[in-house]
Amino acid sequence: MSYDESIGQLTNQTNKLIMRYLNSKLELHDITLEQWIVLLKLSQKDKITQKQLAVNVDKDQPTLARILDILERKKLVERKPNEKDRRAFCVQITEKGINLKKQVTPLLENMFETIVAGISDEEIEIYKRVLLKINGNITIQEKVEK
């Protein structure tokens, strides 16, 4: 069996299952996983530029702008002119966004407890280390290929 079949396809399948599961539960709070990730990052580091936020959430500028448009319509975030650079905006989480985070965080923690049920802490640590190594290998290869 090839690495593509044994690692690539299994990783892809697992990612899709996790995304579908999380989105199905987040839907009850009128938010998607992509929107949640942006909201979570803003709750950790508020009042940052869209450019900084794009790096933090690993999204390109146009994709992040669309997500922010949606979050702004839902009154979960606000964009304000950057005092240091008039061409840029600072993004900040609103009180409504903070309250949503407080509601959703325990829900997600419970969901992840379900996802990792029957898996030891040691196995989780090994899994995380392997994922970080794979991510590092890909990052190095991307730099080499540029």
TrEMBL record:
<dbReference type="InterPro" id="IPR036390">
    <property type="entry name" value="WH_DNA-bd_sf"/>
</dbReference>
<protein>
    <submittedName>
        <fullName>Transcriptional regulator</fullName>
    </submittedName>
</protein>
<keyword id="KW-0238">DNA-binding</keyword>
<feature type="domain" description="HTH marR-type">
    <location>
        <begin position="4"/>
        <end position="136"/>
    </location>
</feature>
<dbReference type="InterPro" id="IPR000835">
    <property type="entry name" value="HTH_MarR-typ"/>
</dbReference>
<dbReference type="InterPro" id="IPR039422">
    <property type="entry name" value="MarR/SlyA-like"/>
</dbReference>
<dbReference type="InterPro" id="IPR036388">
    <property type="entry name" value="WH-like_DNA-bd_sf"/>
</dbReference>
<dbReference type="GO" id="GO:0006950">
    <property type="term" value="P:response to stress"/>
</dbReference>
<dbReference type="GO" id="GO:0003700">
    <property type="term" value="F:DNA-binding transcription factor activity"/>
</dbReference>
<dbReference type="Pfam" id="PF01047">
    <property type="entry name" value="MarR"/>
</dbReference>
<dbReference type="GO" id="GO:0003677">
    <property type="term" value="F:DNA binding"/>
</dbReference>
<keyword id="KW-0804">Transcription</keyword>
<keyword id="KW-0805">Transcription regulation</keyword>
